[in-house]
Design goal:
With 431 residues, this protein is of the alpha+beta class. 39% of the residues lie in helices and 20% in strands.
């Protein structure tokens, strides 16, 4: 199985300077390749990544001698990445999905990173040898064994990281030592499991909101001051071709803001990784909902002719949902379930997990979002909304036809609810 193992680096000032130049080289080559691809495509040709790479190699040192100071992996991998990006674009178009064309990368706006091939690096005890700059200190030693297929050096805020792509063995755990099935209900405030466990979400963005406001205001004020010194007003856009001189104070403020974003991301990732690992290791089967995060976080502003209602409240709810990272939770639980041999059952997004009585199967359609408890009109059982949803998801995960071979469960609303009838589940077998 392929994994990505990320380790923080501790480069010297000279090594950090090389990292910045290598990231700039990778960004420049990507933009050159994308521009050339668009030009050839508009001319009626059929460009491909390999041909563009050969074309660039024939002229790169003659026109741009500064590329000799950067290892060739940094200006060779962007062609591979561009080819993959176009392949995904055309594949999404063919399948009817929302397709996004590759875009140009702007300095300061795109992610700084560059690639290193597996035959050009040597990983040791808290050290890694990279081409051109030699040994670089690492914060920790690699925790996984296995073959290294490549590495990527990237920057977050003021910190640098090495991501190792490794091929490792799958870690299996005896099924007999684990709970048979557990349902997991995701909420903004907490994650509720059918075994009675509740995990309070950290909400790092909410807790750091005031500090983030101050840091963003500090960056904005320094940007406005620079515009005024160049003869522009506060609201004037920066003319094309003009670049504001980055002052030292604005660079410091931007680094502080970037570090705060990194801290929030680390808190969120730490919580998500710990809970997904625990759930995958301790259960034979897991039941979750196939939530449409894009639909849940859609804007409520509406249009100019028809304004939306409660747009400000909806924006706050969207921010809270994204702060908990439902999509990242689902992504991690999917690949970790494969690691530990856990059956993952994803109930259809229209499955009424909260409205369905887990005792008799009655669907209570009058349940509103603000109702945290409700009483079943059929059997009289009083339910906690979130715990009841987790129990329903556990029942879906524990279906006899689900164990070992089911990845999704489709809900048929025409054959569910009423008179104690249980919903009909159509199970999709692994392809």
């Amino acid at each position: 199985m392929l994994i990505a193992h990320r380790i923080e680096l501790r480069p010297t000032s000279e090594q950090e300077e090389y990292f910045f130049r290598a990231c700039g080289t990778a960004r420049f080559v990507w933009n050159w390749a994308l521009d050339e691809w668009n030009r050839q495509y508009q001319a009626g040709l059929r460009p491909n990544a390999l041909a563009l790479r050969k074309q660039f190699n024939a002229i790169k040192y003659a026109d741009r001698p500064w590329l000799k100071d950067i290892h060739r992996d940094a200006h060779a991998q962007p062609f591979v990445n561009l080819g993959k990006a176009w392949s995904r674009f055309f594949a999404d178009l063919k399948s009817g999905k929302v397709a996004h064309r590759p875009v140009f990368k702007k300095k300061g706006k795109s992610r700084d990173s560059f690639y290193v091939a597996n035959d050009r690096l040597t990983v040791g005890e808290k050290r890694v040898r990279l081409p051109v700059i030699g040994k670089v200190k690492m914060k920790e030693s690699p925790r996984f064994g296995g073959k290294i297929l490549g590495a990527t050096v990237s920057r977050e805020g003021t910190r640098w990281y090495l991501s190792l792509q490794q091929e490792v063995e799958v870690c299996w755990i005896e099924l007999a030592n684990r709970r048979k099935a557990t349902g997991v209900d995701l909420n903004v405030s907490e994650i509720v499991c059918s075994d009675g466990k509740r995990y309070e979400t950290p909400r790092p963005l909410l807790k750091a909101q005031k500090r983030m406001t101050r840091l963003r205001r500090s960056v904005s004020r320094k940007l406005v001051a620079q515009k005024q010194r160049m003869g522009l007003s506060r609201t004037d856009p920066i003319p094309k071709g003009m670049r504001l001189v980055a002052s030292k104070n604005r660079e410091k403020a931007s680094r502080r803001l970037g570090d705060q974003y990194r801290k929030i991301r680390c808190i969120r990732n730490d919580f998500t990784n710990k809970i997904t690992t625990s759930l995958s290791r301790e259960n034979q089967a897991l039941g979750i909902e196939d939530l449409s995060v894009t639909g849940m976080t859609a804007s409520a502003k509406g249009t100019t002719g028809k304004r939306g209602k409660n747009a400000r409240q909806k924006a706050g709810l969207n921010r809270a949902i994204l702060d908990v990272a439902f999509g990242e939770f689902r992504r991690q639980i999917r690949y970790k379930s494969a690691w530990y041999g856990t059956t993952l059952v994803e109930a259809d997004r229209f499955f009424p997990s909260s409205k369905r009585c887990s005792c008799c199967g009655e669907v209570y359609h009058a349940l509103r979002l603000k109702d945290r408890t409700w009483t079943c009109p059929q059997c009289g059982t009083t339910h906690d909304r979130d715990f009841n949803a987790s129990v329903n998801l556990e029942q879906v995960a524990g279906l006899p036809e689900a164990i070992g071979k089911v990845t999704s469960v489709r809900y048929d609303p025409s054959q569910s609810g009423g008179s104690g009838q249980k919903p009909v589940h159509s199970c999709a077998q692994l392809g």
